[in-house]
Every structure is written in structure tokens, then in C-alpha cells.
Design brief:
- By secondary structure, the protein is mainly α.
- The chain has one domain: Up-down Bundle (A middle domain of Talin 1), CATH 1.20.1420.30.
- About 75% of the residues lie in helices and about 0% in strands.
- The strands form 2 sheets. The protein has a two-stranded antiparallel sheet.
- Helix 4 packs antiparallel against helix 11, helix 4 packs antiparallel against helix 13 and helix 5 packs parallel to helix 11.
- About 5% of the residues have low confidence.
């Protein structure tokens, strides 16, 4: 019982720390004259993946690769099947041309890259599956390419969306969204947020490992189930709110961006910290991750075209439940 309480306490600190870190850093960036677009693309965009980042980085530093990798893979599956599934049940999600031609293919590229770097036993005949430091550097480089592409693409769209009088549309601007705060308060929020993330992450990882041993399951199983769902709460909350406000594009973009960041940035950084051996991450996990991303692309052409509708949302949720059942019984 005490380990469950510590697990929840650690997760709470992680989520609160991420929130304060993003708010404080955004306020500082705004005071320095950085545009809200850039803030949103960097601080806020990566901020929703901070819980996964902290858990995976700490796990890698402690040599616990199963948690580092399992947390990312489980989070990506939770993002597509559960978060998009629940969001589409609230309001069907229309897919734009950019989603179909650029965004989702980038997420598919990330999943395929993970397969090529992680399935050494099948592809190279190696004795074990390992994401090496070289692989990690390659993943980080691809994250840099993704960020550069996203910023360039969004800037181009914002420019084309400008009104004749020189003002941009509501989508292109978000003035007033970031609260102005005294610089001393923003600094305290940043420091406090980082402290909460680090300390909460240590509590979360250690209690999850202890809980796995008590239940007689591997760290990887705990990582792809409890930890993945817990660290994905920021994405779930933001997507549900976006759906209720009928902002489907924000919900879909949040999930796609988070999944790409999870693989390229978080797994890449984790592998650079310590090579990631994947003893308990199997073909089921890799295959389901690839299936989830492919199905997200397929939804553009099934039932209501270019829409993730409620029927597909139900399928997504059921597939995730089936995956969890298979994982717990493997």
C-alpha cells in the first residue's frame, strides 16, 4: 500500500512540476520578447512530454532500460489509442491535408526509426536488442529536423493566414494566453518545477520498480501500463479540453508532436545517457506501436473520410484494452 501512495505522490509532483516549469519558463520567455508562437512550439510543446522525459532519463541514468523504453512505448500507445480515442468519442476529429501528408507520416517515420534501431536481433542477428549511444545521437538529430520543419511549416501557414490589413487570424496569434508574472516569481516557478520533476521522478521510478517486484511482473510491464498512463495525463487533459472547445486540430497536433518527441528526443536522450538494452520489450510492443500509427493514418480513408469518428474511436479504445490484457499475460 505504501508503494502505491509513493507512486501517486511521485506522479503528482511530476505533473505539478511540469505545470509550474512551463508557466514560469513561458513567463520569462515572454518578458524577454520571445514570440508566443516560439514559446508554444518549444517550452509548451515539449512541456507535455516532460513527465515521460524525467522518468525515462532517470531510469536510463540508473541503468533501468526497461522502464526508460517501456514508458515511451506505452505512452505513445496510450496517446493514440486512449487519448485520441476518448477525445474522438467527445467530438470526432477531422484530419487536415497537412495531417495526412506531413504530420502523421512523420509520426510513422518515428515509429519505423525506433523499430530499425531497436530490433537488432531480427535485423542484424545481434544477440540482444540495444539502442546504442550512436542510435541516440541519430534520434536527437532527427528531433532537431522535426522541430525545424515544424517551425518553418507553421510560420509559412501563419504568413499565408494573414488578413489584408496585416493582422493575422485568431489561429495565428494567441496574445494574452501567457500570464505576465514578476520575474522573481517566474524564476521560483522554474526552480520549484524542476525540483518537483526530479524528486517526483525519483519517487515514481523507485516505487514502480518495487511494485513490479511485489507483483511478480517485469519493470517493462509496469512501464507500459501504469507509468505510461500516468505520465500521459498532461496530454489527456489538454486533448479533452481541446475537444470540448471544438479545437480538434490542437488535440491531434498535441498527440502527434508528443509521440514524435517521445521517440526522437526522450529515447534519443536516454540512449545518450546510457545505452538502452531491451530485454523485456518484445515484438508485441513494437508491432502494436507500428499498428497504432498506421491505423491513425488509415482513419483518414475509412467510414467518414478525413475524420477520426466515434466508431473508429471505439476500435482504438478496444485495441488498447486488448494490448494491456496481452501484456499482463505474456
Amino acid at each position: 500500500m505504501i508503494n502505491i501512495i509513493i507512486l501517486i505522490a511521485g506522479l503528482t509532483l511530476i505533473l505539478l512540476g511540469a505545470n509550474y516549469l512551463v508557466d514560469g519558463a513561458s513567463a520569462i520567455a515572454k518578458r524577454w520578447g520571445i514570440s508566443e508562437f516560439v514559446i508554444g512550439m518549444t517550452i509548451v510543446g515539449i512541456g507535455t512530454s516532460t513527465p515521460e522525459m524525467v522518468v525515462s532519463f532517470l531510469s536510463a541514468a540508473q541503468g533501468n532500460a526497461d522502464i526508460a523504453v517501456g514508458n515511451v512505448m506505452g505512452s505513445n500507445l496510450f496517446n493514440i489509442f486512449m487519448i485520441l480515442g476518448i477525445t474522438a468519442l467527445i467530438m470526432p476529429l477531422p484530419l487536415t491535408g497537412n495531417n495526412i501528408k506531413k504530420d502523421i507520416p512523420f509520426a510513422l517515420l518515428a515509429a519505423l526509426t525506433l523499430l530499425f534501431t531497436g530490433l537488432d536481433t531480427i535485423l542484424d542477428g545481434a544477440p540482444a536488442n540495444i539502442i546504442s549511444r550512436t542510435d541516440g545521437l541519430m534520434l536527437l538529430s532527427m528531433f532537431g529536423v522535426f522541430m525545424a520543419y515544424t517551425i518553418y511549416s507553421s510560420q509559412s501557414q501563419s504568413a499565408s493566414a494573414a488578413q489584408p490589413n496585416g493582422n493575422t487570424t485568431e489561429t495565428a496569434t494567441a496574445e494574452g494566453e501567457i500570464k505576465q508574472r514578476p520575474i522573481w516569481l517566474a524564476l521560483i516557478m522554474v526552480v520549484g518545477g524542476l525540483a518537483g520533476l526530479v524528486y517526483g521522478g525519483e519517487l515514481f521510478v523507485s516505487s514502480a520498480s518495487t511494485l513490479a517486484k511485489m507483483l511478480g511482473v517485469s519493470d517493462a510491464v509496469i512501464a507500459v501500463t501504469i507509468m505510461a498512463g500516468g505520465t500521459s495525463l498532461p496530454e489527456l487533459a489538454s486533448c479533452v479540453v481541446a475537444a470540448m472547445k471544438k479545437n480538434a486540430d490542437l488535440a491531434l497536433g498535441n498527440v502527434i508532436g508528443s509521440n514524435v518527441a517521445n521517440i526522437f528526443l526522450i529515447l534519443g536522450g536516454s540512449a545518450v545517457i546510457h545505452p538502452l538494452g531491451m530485454n523485456n520489450i518484445g515484438n508485441l510492443d513494437f508491432g502494436t506501436l507500428l499498428l497504432a500509427t498506421v491505423l491513425l493514418f488509415v482513419t483518414a480513408f475509412t467510414f467518414k473520410k478525413r475524420t477520426l469518428d466515434r466508431a473508429e474511436a471505439v476500435i482504438f479504445v478496444l485495441l488498447y484494452i486488448g494490448y494491456i490484457i496481452l501484456t499482463l499475460n505474456k
